Amino acid sequence: RFDVSAPWLNRVLERRPRQFVHAVDGVSFSIERGKTLALVGESGCGKSTVARLLVGLYGASEGQVLLEGQDCAAGWAGPQAAALRRRMQMIFQDPYASLNPRWKVLDIVGEPLREHGLVRGGAELTQRVGELLRSVGLAAADGEKYPHQFSGGQRQRISIARALATQPEFLICDEPTSALDVSVQAQVLNLMKDLQRERGLTYLFISHNLAVVRHVADQVGVMYLGRIVELADKAELFSAPRHPYTRMLLDAIPDIHMTGRARTPVQGEVPNPLNPPSGCSFHPRCPLANERCSRERPSLQAFKGIQVACHAVSEGRS
Ligand code: SF4
Ligand code: MG
Which pLDDT score, from 0 to 100, does residue 241 have? Predict the structure, then answer.
């Protein structure tokens, strides 16, 4: 079980030129072992910040990240950092930028094995990398090639093989298919689901794309301006979205409700996080906003098995 618990993810400070922003505030969730939680939202909502926080690239000013009860912040700072790193790996959006073009695939995928002392010599390294490449649908002989010899989808398979090298339990996937063609996206997502089943992996899956999230998630957290505004099981979220922002995102996906009505593009723009709106930060874009919304920030509240932060929902007028 992976817990990111409430008041503590409070106030993650992200350094911007001459200013600090509360990039993420009051974000709280748990992921059951072997399951996928997706965080979804438009760019700038703080979902990548959450990912970087979990792997220790950022520190939180309050709050904690627990992996099976172990405090990760203490873990990253202490002698257990390497062990923690083996258990949690990250897959990034851009397989072009994240693979060193001058390295053979053998060395790219084998680097974590070497770094963590998981192989004794060159022959064992070659064998283990071959197994990893086959597990992601590539050939063992591909280890002798360089990244530029592969397509985008194949490169993301190489990234996944590298992430699996230390036999992690938990993978943080930040827009892992966003740079790929739609047909290739589905293949990579299916591979990730197969690997999850075979290895009991737990995923935090970050995406701006609800159609992708629908394909992979068990639970979905919708983020807006650094906060989770709705957190629900996937089926519930897609069949009965409560938060007006979730509805706006769903209405922008073609055919999601199978009603045949035209999709409505997402309206308005994400406000500047340096100067967020008062009250509910969604109020300038919200069709249900009233005077209270511009004054008072709604907190995330349990409501019929889901969590949602919206006055209209708690007042029964949504
Ligand atoms: Fe809209 Fe008000 Fe709900 Fe915010 S709190 S989402 S502005 S109805
Ligand atoms: Mg991002």
Answer: 94
pLDDT tens, position by position, 124-145: 999 999 999 999 999 999 999 9
Q: Work out the angle at residue 214's Cα, subtended by the Cα atoms of residues 184 and 48, and round it to the nearest 5 degrees.
A: 80
Structural domain contains residue 286:
no
Closest residue by CA, ligand 1 atom 6: 310
What CATH number did the domain enclosing 18 receive?
A: 3.40.50.300
Counted domains in the chain:
1
Q: At what angle do helices 182-199 and 152-164 cross, to 10 degrees?
A: 20
Beta carbons within 10 angstroms of residue 132's beta carbon: 26
More confident residue, 275 or 202: 202
Q: Which helix (H) or strand (E) holds 12?
A: strand 12-16
Residue 46 near residue 37, CB atoms below 8 Å: no
> Does residue 127 sit in helix, strand or coil?
helix
**In contact, 140 and 106? CB cutoff 8 Å:** no
Helices then strands, counting H and E runs in the chain, come out as 12, 14
> Does some domain include residue 91?
yes
> Which ligand does the CA of 42 lie closest to?
2
At a CB cut-off of 8 Å and minimum separation 6, what does 63 contact?
4, 5, 6, 7, 8, 9, 10
311 occurs within a structural domain: no
Q: Is residue 237 part of a domain?
A: no
Distance in Å, CA 211 to ligand 1 centroid: 24
Identify which of 26, 20, 34 has the alpha carbon closest to the alpha carbon of residue 4.
Answer: 26
d(Cα 59, Cα 74) in Å, to the nearest integer? Answer: 11
**CB of residue 311 inside a 6 A radius of ligand 1:** yes
ipTM, two decimals, is: 0.96
Domain ranges, residue 212: 2-232
